Every structure is written in C-alpha cells, then in structure tokens.
User: Fold these one by one.
Assistant:
Number 1:
Amino acid sequence: MENEAYRDIAPYYGEELDEALDRLRENKGFIKSASEMVFLTKFNLMSTVKKMALQHKLHEALDTVHSVDDFQGNVTSKILISAVIKNTMDEFTYEGIENLEKGHAYFFFSNHRDIVLDCALLNDVLGKEGHGFTEIAIGDNLLTSQLSKDLFKLNGGVTVKRTLPIREKFFESKRLSSYFYEGIAKHNKSMWVAQKSGRAKDGLDLTSPSIIKMLYMAQKDSGMTFKQLLADCSIVPVSVSYQYDPCDINKGREVLSKKLTGYYEKKKYEDMIQVLKGIKKYKGNVHLHVGTPIDPNLPDHLAVAAEIDRQIHLGYKLWDSNYIAYDIITKSDRFISKYTDEQKEKFLSRYDDFTPDLKSQVMETYANPVKMQLKAQGECQ
C-alpha cells in the first residue's frame, strides 16, 4: 500500500524499492550467499563458469523486478524457494488451495515453525496456483542489518515493532491492525501473520486471541460490527508440517532453559543464524494445508481463535517423527503401525549426542501436534 502513514512499516515501494535493488546488485555477499543457497553443499564443487552463470541469472532476475510482487515471484519463488525445496526436502506437498477464490484477498493465520519458510512456502503455492502473493508480518528483531531489512521488505515484509514501551506498543498494534485491514478490505491485498508472537518452540500451536481483538479495536470506533470485520478480512487458517525441524535442538534448549531457570537469553544474531539453518538444512517431507475461510458469524475473538486452532490442528500432516515421539513420550505403542524400526532409528539417531532432558524436550515438541490433532478430533490423547 503506497500510503505515507504506513511508510515505516510497509514493504518497499517507489524509490525505496529501486534503492534496495541497487544495493542487492552491488552486494557481492548477497549474490554469493544466494548462490550457495541454490546449490548448498554442491556450491564448492561448481565450476567457475557455472558460478558466474548463476550469478548472472540472479542479476537478470533482479532486473525484472519493479514491485514487491515481482521480487516474490521472479527471485524468491522461482530461484530461491524452488532450490530449497529441491535440495533440502524429500517432497513438498500441499492441499486446500481450492478453498480460495482467485482475485480475492485473505488474511492467512498460520502456525509458525520456521522463521522464513512458513510464509515463503505459502507464497510459492499461491503464485503457482494463480493467486496473489501475501504481505508478511515480521518482527523488527529480524531487521539486524541493511541486507536483512532489504530482503524482508522486498519480500512483502510488514514490520512489527516489538521493542516499544507498553503504551506505545498498544497504539502501534492498532496502527498495524489498521494496515492489515486496509490492505485486505480496501486494496485487495492478502496478509500473512503467525497465530501468535514468535515460533511455537514447544510444538504447541495456539492462536493468540489478542491478535483478533486488536484487529477489531482498530476498526470498532468507525461503527463497524465484529461480523463485518470478519466478513471483510476473510481469515483462513494455514498449517505447515515439517517431518524434521532443522532448529529442533535450538528450540529445545530455549524451552528447557525457561522450564529450569525461567529465563533464556538469546545470543547476538541467534535469530538470523536460525533463519539460515532453517533454509539450508534437511527437512525431510513438508506439507502445507490451507483451511477454509472462517464463519463471519462467530461471536467474538475467543471463538475466532478457537476456530483457527481447530482448523490448524486438523490440518496437520503427521509424520513418522511425530508418531515416534508420541509413543516415546506416552510410553506406548499406540501408533507403532505408522512407522518402521528403520524410521525410528533414523529419527532418534539425530539426538544421540544430547542430554536426556534435551532429548525428552525435543520428543515433546514432535509429539504435541499428535496430541492437539487427537483433541481436535475429539479423541482421547
């Protein structure tokens, strides 16, 4: 949205976009890193000619960019995400895209496991299926350098300011909510947000009702009803399921530290290191499920959050890793038919070098989606 009132939080447009593209063209580190992302461990085995050809391809792609949509389609989806899928996944599948109407904007509420890929994979699917790309909510803690800021904002990043005093944060949240609403309802631009602040590091995907409450508060003063807000925003839940989470040990350490000491201090650049790890490391199979637009007749923000949760939990694609972890945590063989001895050995071998407490925490993280899906199905856990 080309609106000066939101210039500081909106994705790049106009001169800002052109200047960011110029910085990328001149940034040899970006071109090299992007090349490494495309070929990963194979990069060092590439001939000089192939390296130069790839770098030329990236420069050519940047020359086709005149908007954020162009960058998302021509650079991120066609070059970078396609390479991530090819090189770090056994298979990427998706379903539910038929629930969406082409040319219609939606407010996607997604579970959040990977800092970058959750929304990038959704945008990749939307582009391939002829839908518009989404803008994405990102915390300002990720904008640690000019390069990271440029890449996020060229990919439709909408800045969520997390380091403000409480009073300022309240008003900023209302402004951000107004931006989301205007983008969807007035400009027909889809938006993506995580269902709660930060990744679900314990595997418990639960929507924060405050997001929906703030969305309504930003429009309530105009006389809008809650029903009208829901009808205008077309909220759609999204589930992303990873067979293997490249950052599972990192997340486990953080959750365990908070359990044992009540505190965890992030190291400098820790988030960006995990961004790269999530992109580059092996993920096995990955599945994305797009839900159905929620009923605008739901009575309040609590009911909306509950429906988002229900659809996300039912939309999980549970993998052998989830079933193995569930059986270990519950000391049962309830799902033994869902995996083989070889799969169990492969999965558990990832954690041979870690303490029992950390391994147990990681098992909980993989088991929790099974528990939540059983609950959503009305079954005994």
Number 2:
Amino acid sequence: MLDRARDLGELDHRTFRNDEFWREIPGWRDVTPQEFGNHLWQSKHSIRKLDQVQSVLGSRICPTFIDDIAAGLKIAPMNIRITPYVFSLIDWDNPADDPLRKQFLPIASQMLPDHPYYMADSLYEDVDSPVPMLTHRYPDKVLFLPLTTCPVYCSYCTRSRIIGGSTETVDKDTYGPNPANWEPAFEYLRNHPQVEDVVISGGDAFNLTPRYIRLIGEALLEIPHIRRLRYATKGVAILPMKILTDNEWMDAFLDIHRRGRKMGKQVVIHTHFSSPREITQYSMDAARRFFDEGVVVRNQAVLQEGVNNSIEDMVLLTRQLAYMNIRPYYVYVHDMVPGCEHLRTTLWEAVQLEKSVRGTTAGFNTPTFVCDAPGGGGKRHVASYEYYDRENGISVWSSPNVKPGELFLYFDPVHRLSRDAQERWGNGDSRLAMVHEAIRRSNYEISDMARTKIAERLEGGAARSGEKR
C-alpha cells in the first residue's frame, strides 16, 4: 500500500521548491540568495506598475500580453502590487494559464461582466459596522480593520471597495494605520462583554509596524473578556522573508503572543495560501519559525477557477499546509464582488471538491468549505443551503444564529450555466421570477421585513446590471 501511495504521488506534499527560481527573471538574474531572501529587498522591488513588468521580464513577455494586462488594469477594481517572490514563481512561458498570475495580475481577455447581483460590499461588512473599522456580526467575534494596505494586492479581494488605492473604475477611501482612529473600536469592545474574539485584518497585519503590532495587541489583551486575537496576513504566503529576516516585527508579534499566553489567551496567525504554486522552502522555513515559538497558524483559501478548483491541487495544498504545521481552516466559495466573475466557481464544484478532499488526510487537517452568505449571513457550510437550483445557479441560505428569520442568496456565475439558463438571466423579469421561485421552494418561513431586505438587494442588483465598468 505504501508503494502504491508513492506511485500516486501521495508524498509529493513533502517536497518544496528550493532552487534560485528568481534568476529565470531577466531583471533579477544577478540577485543573490541573500538579497532575494531579505524582506527589505522584496518590498523595495515589488511590482507596482506595468512598466516594471516589462522592465524585469524583458524579452520573456510578448507585447500582446502586456497590452492584455494594460487593458485588464483599466477595468479591474484593484491596482497591482506583487512581491518579487510571487512574481518569480509565475510561469512566464505560459502566464495566461498560471494560477499565480491569475490571482495577482488581471488580463482583459479573461475578465467577464459582473454578475447582475454582485455587491461591492458583498458580506455587508460596512452595514454590520457599529463604529468605524469594526464589523460585529457574530455574537462573540468582531473584525477589526486598522488599515487598508497590503504587501500584495489580490485580484479577487473581497474588500476591493477600500483596499489598494483608487483605480480607473473605483474611487476608494483607503487609510493607513493611525492609533487616534482606533480608540472608538477599542471603546466599543470594552463596552461589549460578549465579545471574546478579535480578528485584526485590513489590509494586512504585515503592514503594521512593530509599534502598532504591540499597541493593538496590548490594548486588546487588556480588555478582560477578550480571549482570542487573530492577526490576519497573507504575508506568510507571499512574503515569507519577513518572518525570516524582519526580527523587529517578529519580536513584536511574539511579545504579544507570549503576553497573551501568560494571561491564558490565544494569539494566533491567520494566513492565506490558495495555490500549491505559492509554496516553497521559504514557506516551510517561515512556518517552522512560528511553530518553534508555539504559534498556531491557520490557513484560509479562496476557491478560484483555474487556480485551485481541481481535486489534485486542493488535496496537494491541504497536505502541504498540514506538513508545514499550518492548519487548513477554511476554503471560501468566491465572494460576489466586482471584477472577479472569471474567477468564481459554482457552488456545486465546492460541494464536490470538499467530498473529494475529505478523507485524504486527518479530519483536523481538513478544511471546511464555506459560502460567506452575501448580505451578512456569515459563513455557512457549502452543503447547508436551504435550497439549491443548480440549473439556474441560485442557492438560498439561512443563518439562524447570526440573523434569524432572514434568507440570503448566492448565485453561480452565469457563464457556467446552460445556454437556456443564461438566456433567462439576460431578462430582468425572468431573473426575478427564478429567484422568487427558489425562495418559495426553500420552504423557509421569513418575516415581511426579511422579504423587504431581499427585494432591496435584488432591486439594487437590477439597477447595477445596466452599469458599465
């Protein structure tokens, strides 16, 4: 049986890329391992503009692909910012199909019109915000957003409405870290004893200075009823060098981690690997540094077309994370935010993928596949819908302990449906009729107020369907 496992590649998750892969980029051919492995060099040489893409790649990229990127940036809701680490891992011999390029560098030829019912704030984070920078949806947990900058900008970002600076299609109210603006959030938490869990996100916690890592951590740990802090950062995946060489940042985080531990409180890292292609020996070394210090690291991936929606990639990702002592926590069905229709999958794919992943490794290292129900319903297991019309791509959800008596709707990408279904979606009246029929078939009793909320969301989508982005 063991020999058969080897034949099937079931030990591939133990092999990590460890070559000088960045030398394949013409502009970085002479960069030493010491330079490339330093977080300051990585930050200084991050790709922020299209002319940098041309400059470092030289003849490795054709002019037509550059034109495709340029056209994509004109309609994408996110600017570009890519670390050399990630940029070097892209297969520049076939960038159109590369899973890392798809996540960080949009091309117009692959982008699609937004779904008629997309929402810029699909998860209602702004709606469920009692004070600025804080979202309080679940009874004992809040989301704290102390900044809106990141070391990379993901094309599929759920917060593209505020993160990454204004683009040609989106005006954004971005903000950097400012302690003077955080006090209302801290005061709210002091006055709400039911809250025990705080996610510190943004933006990205990697972009908080050591001083701010300590300031936030100390302020929250001093609140008696706060028991769990999660510093959220994609940095472990896209800038592992910071963990390995930015000792000031690590010392600040570890100080908060140790202080919390002495108080009987959890301080952990939540990170964000979505593709096995993101994982190298740098990843393993960074994860090991956290592990050696007793820090729990959990991973939250986003399910994306052409990135990780194959059984092989998802199983490999899950096993590699577990091997690095990073706990596979969630795989999210892609949120219904603008500029991402080409990356979304159907709900059915998520259900089938979880079935295939479950049983390939220990249960505690198996991620839960969830749909973060649009409209603020919160995270729901992908198979826990009240009703799913696969033909028309409409799923109906309830969230009894988050927003009792309400229903929430998630929609599969229209281009993945049958031709007949696509035609129905192209007509406003038939579109509404399909949605209301799905709600009826769910047999879920909802209040008149809940029906009004659904109608408002649908009417908002109908109004947006005529927009040009």
